[in-house]
Structures are given as structure tokens and as C-alpha cells.
Design brief:
By secondary structure, the chain is of the alpha+beta class. It folds into 2 domains: 3-127, CBS-domain (Roll); 149-180, no CATH class. Helices cover 41% and strands 14% of the residues. The protein has helices spanning 9-12, 26-36, 56-66, 93-101, 122-138, 147-150, 157-165, 169-176, and strands spanning 40-44, 50-55, 87-88, 107-112, 115-121. A 3-stranded mixed beta sheet has the order 3-4-5. Strands 1-2 form a two-stranded antiparallel ribbon. The model has no long low-confidence stretch (mean pLDDT 82).
Amino acid sequence: MDKSKIPTARELMEKIPTAFSPGMSLVDAIETLAEMHVSAAPVVDDNDCFLGMLTDKDCLRIVSVSAFHRPRGGRVADFLSTVTQAVELEMDLFRIAEIFLNTHFTVLPVLDRGRLVGCINREGLLNGISFLTKVLEEEGVKVEAEASEAVVRPSSIGELQRAFARLSREQLVRRVGRRS
């Protein structure tokens, strides 16, 4: 398959619906998330450098704490979630999917040299998968009708060794994990 046909973050990302400053009132940020019907928004400094995400889950934690203590306010910076993995502009659909599978975020920032340029959500990724499937079918590539067709299970130790021999070290670590 031609790698140039695999969608990248550049094609899949959306314009940033809203971004918060770290000093913004938490109550105002919650109101904005609710009004815009979004589950998360990026937090950026004055230079558009990405600092983290304020998610609906962060806001729910505040409500939970308020049930036992006096209701809390504060600044967005006090409650944002740190994002350890961000999407870069040229990352392809498969790498982005891997990041989503390794994080609890439903929305991820798209960065260009540390600056926020867009966001990508799981729905955008599904649209990319749908697009890629159509491209493959147009090229005559058979897409498996069932997931079980894509999984070849070795029936002997020899077959397992041959299957592992075809994988790179990185692929092996991803599939079977690394022992400490």
C-alpha cells in the first residue's frame, strides 16, 4: 500500500474549538466546555505553547471533592491534566491510534514544534479509518470481513518462532511487552 495515502494528523485534525489560559477561572472554563458541548479543551500559554488539557473528567473530580468539602473554585492551571503523549502533524493514522490506545484522553492536541495547531478526537480517527478502507478497496486490496481473518495464530513453537523472526525488536516489544 502506498504510504502517502495513509491519512496524517494534518488531514485528520480539527480547528481548536476553544483553548484556555492557565489563569482562567475554573468556573468559566467549565461553563465554556458545557456551552460548546466538548469533553476537553487544550490549555496554552500566551505564546500558544501547549501546557495540558482540561477535561470533563477533571471537572467531575472537582464536583466529587466538593461533595465532602466546601465547593472549590480556582484556576484552570490548578486542575488541568498533563498530556505525556501528543500528536505531531505528520504522524499517520496508525501511530495516532496507538497513542489513543495508550491514554485515557478522548481528544489529543496536535503540535508543531511544541505549538498547538489543532486537536484530534477519536471520531476524527474513525473518519480516517473509513477513508483509508475506501482507498484500499478502490485499489483492489481485500479488507478482512472479520477480525479473526487478520489474526494468524501459530499452532506450534516452530510457527511461533518464525512469526517472531519476521518482527523487528520494536514490534516484538509492542506485542509481548518488556520485562523489567
